[in-house]
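Support reply, case 0932

Customer input (verbatim):
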Amino acid sequence: MAPAAVRPWGELQHDLLVAIMSRVGAPDLLSGGAPRTCSAWWAAARDPLAWRRVDLRDWTARTSARRAAGTGATRGSISVQAALTGDLEVAATRADGRMEAVLLPEFADEEHLMFLAERSPNLHYFSFPTTCMTSDDFCMAITKLQSLKGMAVDESLINYDVLLHVHQCCTDFLELKVFALYVDEDMASVICESLPRLKKLEIPNSDMSCAAIIKFLDCLEELEYLDISGYETSAISSSVLHKASRLKAFIWNSKFELGEFMDCSNCGEHNINPQEPCKCTMDHKVMDWLAGPSQTA
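Our regenerated output:
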């Protein structure tokens, strides 16, 4: 049998190569890995469509070190902050105005967000987990991002004035993700009052009160997607489940991956693992066993 014909990778259609490059990851593209391949792959890595979504959450200094070596710069001659700015400059240039989403690393600061606002005013979404940006600086950046549809930010930026500014500047804003340790009814009220048109809300890995969840479900009338997975205390009641039934997606699984936390209705003991019942439940099971088989039919 004759061996099957082998076609070179470079003959793949350009659109398919671009789709592949968009999934490679910005750090790898920025490090120069793609340009070292054939001309077809190199061209795909430079196509603006491959840079519509730039994920830099895994960005490290190694990326900038490789680039610095290629330009003759010495190790340590530029700071990590400046190196990240340089890579954002490259990404913005290659995107040629088509960048839609940017996910920044935790150490990104206000200069990086302002750079994006100035270079990519048509940005639809950004993730900015830093805790060190002032409300005034953040609002200044938002003013330049009037096409923004969603963002992921730290709880330090969740206040009425900031979110109201987002609502007023970004008429299509529908999606919010918050990095928070604890969410109470007051924070929920701030989000509901300032962003009443939210369709998607994500607050994962947060200790959240039942009152806060109910506030979201009662006040955000256009909400379709709610993710509060990874919570540390149980706040999922039958009332919450009933109210959430109108949503297209409600994600609330426990961070311990053991189902809903259990509270004994008799002794009130908090139990994390349903497979290890509290002492009260064990006593009842022992008494049932001592009583012998049930006589009921």
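We compared this against your earlier run and they match. Two observations from our side: Residues 13-291 form a domain with the Leucine-rich repeat, LRR (right-handed beta-alpha superhelix) fold (CATH 3.80.10.10). Residues 69-76, 255-266, 268-275 have pLDDT under 50 and may be disordered. Please reopen the case if you see a mismatch on your end.
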